[in-house]
Amino acid sequence: MNLHEYQGKEILSSFGVRIQRGIVAQNANEAVAAAKQLTSETGTTWHVIKAQVHAGGRGKGGGVKLAKNLKEVEELAGQIIGMNLITPQTSAEGKKVHQVLIAEDVYYPGESETSEFYMSVLLNRATGRNMIMYSTEGGMDIETVAEETPDLIFTEEIDPTVGLMPFQARRVAFNLGLSGLAFKEMTKFVSALYTAYVKSDSSLFEINPVLKTSDDKIMAVDAKVTIDDNALYRHKNYVDLRDVREESAIEVEAGELGLNYVDLDGNVGCMVNGAGLAMATMDLIKQAGGEPANFLDVGGTADAARVEAAFKIILKDPAVKAILINIFGGIVRCDRVAQGVIDAYKNMGNINVPIIVRLQGTNADIAKQLIDNSGLDVMSATEFQEAADKVQQVLG
Amino acid sequence: MSVLVNKDSKIIVQGFTGSEGTFHASQMIEYGTNIVGGVTPGKGGQTHLEKPVFNTVLEAVNEVGADTTIIFVPPAFAADAIMEAADAGIKVIITITEGIPVADMIIASNYIKNKNCRLIGPNCPGVITPEEAKVGIMPGFVFKKGKVGIVSKSGTLTYEAADQVVKQGLGITTAIGIGGDPIIGTTTKEAVELLINDPETEAVVMIGEIGGQLEADAANWYKSSGSNKPVVGFIAGETAPAGRTMGHAGAIVGGSDDTAQAKKKIMRSCGIHVVDSPAEIGKKIAEVLA
């Protein structure tokens, strides 16, 4: 589950990680009130207005602005809320901004120069251990850094039996070139950050930038936090942090029906049991000259109700010119799936795109007969290649 | 010969009396798999499906000599079940459970590292050696005995591959479903190595998907092994959108090996017979064995 910056920062702060402070606002009036409150609490006179959407690169799209007085806070918050923010990580249409974070200005002048770092915590799949990845090149796109100056990216891998060791926290601070108070602050920051990662059952923290202020404080100025969905059962207080406005409406609806669905741009819909076979079916559609319109894993029980729900979701996309159903019946019997397809088709009544049903495995022969004798405009197939040929045929 | 499981394996079911455990245990017994009992804490001493139920894995090891386990325990308790099995001296731990928190698997995979055991999965369909032992949830009838080994991250795609192999008049030595989670006990490379080293296996089908570097590691190992047993490969997800399941910073670690295209390229350069269409796995294996 992905979180907004302000939600991620709240979690970090609850584990003692220093953050750039801010208050979330839904409209310009709330933004002004938030700015006043921040000024009284932190003494900040300038404020940063930050669009809260699930996408990186917000600054590049005009979603992060500096306001030097309350009038500017009101104006800028008013401009950003409601805009369609387009960043390198969004689609071409962008993402609608529903709320902004009013944050304190932390780049104030002082005794020393400010500097920005990059830090993330994530799983190293190759070793099955968590690692802290960090770089002196903060505020930049880390993939660019990895490509151009890979020697400026460092990692600390964490032994799960002992957790992050003090020498590792010191090594982070040394590698980032810090000394004095800033060095000490960084070791505290890294330790608290790792604790937060583990205790919150996160699967990704990306803090870009981590800022050294002009008075040598270390703080998280941004926060991208992803919580491990499989661990949400033990963090009931995080469940409400999900913002479905940030997800595709059709994917949310499919999720509520128990379908694992990803919306794509193609012209052939598909309905498959099992994630691997579903991806392979998408690939097959492409091989047959089409483009997959979706990923859809119906899971182990492909009964009439489920098939009907899947039909409804797929047919919401007007670009769909054909639907390929690909079920490998193991424990689930093909004849029951076939009956499910027939019942769903009859219930729907108005399906006007060709349907190709490929059923293989337990009772595949009976299933094919059921489909062929149903009198419906449904083509049956048993072999994978046969299904591909039929897709090609209907696409003309 | 075969790998991991055979007719002599002494298999227990953890989560034996639950609905999943009960259903699949009876399917496995029907297949002829040597199920010697099961474990459900608090139900020790009872009999279920005509087999003894034990409170702990250790009791099952001591009393019926269990050496293999299949785990159907719910996600919140599954990592603990894996560690219990490893601690009791079980040699092959096959974990079907889907949805185990990553943090739990970090601990479990670290815990079992120095035990003398092999973990398969989690989130996998299991392992089958046709006509000997089905230790998983796959439809047994699809897998006929033969000389082709299968390694796959996915369930139904494994059945698809086996079905295609069988329709070419060939059969399977052992099919290993390694699982699709970010942390799995046995990697693609380790599973391929087991099969390449199995005298009865004459060719291997290796099925992967986008994400991670397991297939590239396996391909590099295969090349350096100098083996003359052919490997046929397929990577699912050529048409999958980027960045949907992986975190931003995660993509950096995977580097350029993450996409289907990149993986296939590496596999081809290591001498693996890669097919672009999932419908051609069977045809290709027949061709390389001809």
UniProtKB/TrEMBL annotation, chain A:
Keywords: ATP-binding, Ligase, Magnesium, Metal-binding, Nucleotide-binding, Tricarboxylic acid cycle. It is an enzyme of class 6 (ligase). It catalyses: succinate + ATP + CoA = succinyl-CoA + ADP + phosphate; GTP + succinate + CoA = succinyl-CoA + GDP + phosphate. Substrate binds at residues 273, 330-332. ATP binds at residues 50, 57-59, 106, 116. Pathway: Carbohydrate metabolism; tricarboxylic acid cycle; succinate from succinyl-CoA (ligase route): step 1/1. InterPro entries: ATP-grasp_succ-CoA_synth-type (IPR013650), ATP_grasp_subdomain_1 (IPR013815), Succ-CoA_synthase_bsu_CS (IPR017866), SUCC_ACL_C (IPR005811), Succ_CoA_ligase-like_bsu (IPR005809), Succinyl-CoA_synth-like (IPR016102). Mg(2+) binds at residues 208, 222. One of its GO terms (molecular function) is ligase activity. NCBIfam families: PRK00696.1, sucCoAbeta. Heterotetramer of two alpha and two beta subunits. Succinyl-CoA synthetase functions in the citric acid cycle (TCA), coupling the hydrolysis of succinyl-CoA to the synthesis of either ATP or GTP and thus represents the only step of substrate-level phosphorylation in the TCA. The beta subunit provides nucleotide specificity of the enzyme and binds the substrate succinate, while the binding sites for coenzyme A and phosphate are found in the alpha subunit. This is Succinate--CoA ligase [ADP-forming] subunit beta.
TrEMBL record, chain B:
Pathway: Carbohydrate metabolism; tricarboxylic acid cycle; succinate from succinyl-CoA (ligase route): step 1/1. It is an enzyme of class 6 (ligase). It comes from the Bacteria. Substrate binds at residue 159. This is Succinate--CoA ligase [ADP-forming] subunit alpha. PROSITE patterns: SUCCINYL_COA_LIG_1, SUCCINYL_COA_LIG_2. It comes from Hyunsoonleella aestuarii. The active site is at residue 248. Keywords: Ligase, Nucleotide-binding, Tricarboxylic acid cycle. InterPro entries: Cit_synth/succinyl-CoA_lig_AS (IPR017440), Citrt_syn/SCS-alpha_CS (IPR033847), CoA-bd (IPR003781), CoA_lig_alpha (IPR005810), NAD(P)-bd_dom_sf (IPR036291), SUCC_ACL_C (IPR005811), Succinyl-CoA_synth-like (IPR016102). One of its GO terms (molecular function) is ligase activity. CoA binds at residues 17-20, 43, 96-98. Transmembrane segments: none annotated. Heterotetramer of two alpha and two beta subunits. Residues 4-100 form the CoA-binding domain. It catalyses: GTP + succinate + CoA = succinyl-CoA + GDP + phosphate; succinate + ATP + CoA = succinyl-CoA + ADP + phosphate. The keyword Nucleotide-binding applies. Belongs to the succinate/malate CoA ligase alpha subunit family. Its EC number is 6.2.1.5. Succinyl-CoA synthetase functions in the citric acid cycle (TCA), coupling the hydrolysis of succinyl-CoA to the synthesis of either ATP or GTP and thus represents the only step of substrate-level phosphorylation in the TCA. The alpha subunit of the enzyme binds the substrates coenzyme A and phosphate, while succinate binding and nucleotide specificity is provided by the beta subunit. NCBIfam families: PRK05678.1 (NF004230), sucCoAalpha (TIGR01019). It holds the Pfam family Ligase_CoA.
